[in-house]
Amino acid sequence: MPGFQPNPAPTPPNMNHGGHEMFDSHEVLASFISVLDQYLIFDQYIKDQELRTILYRQHAFITDLYNTAVEAFSTGEKPSHSTRVYKMQQNNHTVYGLTPGQPKKPFTSANQVNDQGVSGYMLGLIKSTGSLLAMTALEMTNPVLRRVIADSVPNFIEMAYEIFLYQNKRHYYQVPQLAQQDMSQMLQSFAPAQQPNLFRH
Question: How far apart are CA 175 and CA 187, in angstroms?
Answer without folding.
Answer: 18
